Predict the 3D structure of the following.
Amino acid sequence: MQLGTITVARRFCGPPNSANGGYIAGRLAAFVDGPAEVTLRRPPPLDVEMTVSKTEAGGVALHDGDALVATARPAGVEIDAFPPTEVAAARAAMTRSFPRAAHPLPGCFVCGPERHDGLGLAAGPLDGDDVGWDGLLASVWTPAVDLAGADGAVGDEFIWAALDCPTSFPFFDATGTLPVLLGRMTAALERPARVGEDYIVVTRAAARDGRKLFAEAVLQDASGGTIAAAKTTWILVDEAALTGG
């Protein structure tokens, strides 16, 4: 049973020729009631109408023609609590991120340094002595007006996006990145984010299993309250897959 369609505008890319993983995950999660787990099966194309349909297992599936792009199902997020983080501390952490010139996807909507219309998220270690990036990383996000509806509430897909790319950063260091793509993301949104307010994405590594890298994150408001939480699975890929998807 077809539920609707999704078309991702080129603005919301991750790699040059495919959608940002968190953004498309959030779009698909809108067809699921409550917290959702989204699994990406292939790079989601840009400017292509994809169909959303119900699955026999009670979830939803996203197809590009006959090709399965992603699936989503209801799922909760269980992670240990994160400590409240101050906006000033998160801004300082961003200055300790890796160099802009080392970014493998400078045009990424969420974290690309060349994007003046993106989210501008560049996480760095909260502890200035954390040279191995083994602890908490943070970034500040101030949603722009074009990410919200008439009521000033930011679209859920942008909250998913904000929790996406920063969760790859715990596997990097001050010199650069690993070639990784989002494989799975589970997110729970507790309350809306608002245009023009400062929010903090706090993230940490959870585990590593071969090519799979596991991380978790929260989106906090300026007083330390939780807006949303997420768990992600990143897949190590070769450089061609990273840029050519």
About this structure: The helical segments are 21-29, 87-94, 156-162, 239-244. The longest helix spans residues 21-29. The longest strand covers residues 199-209. The chain has two domains: 2-74, 87-244.
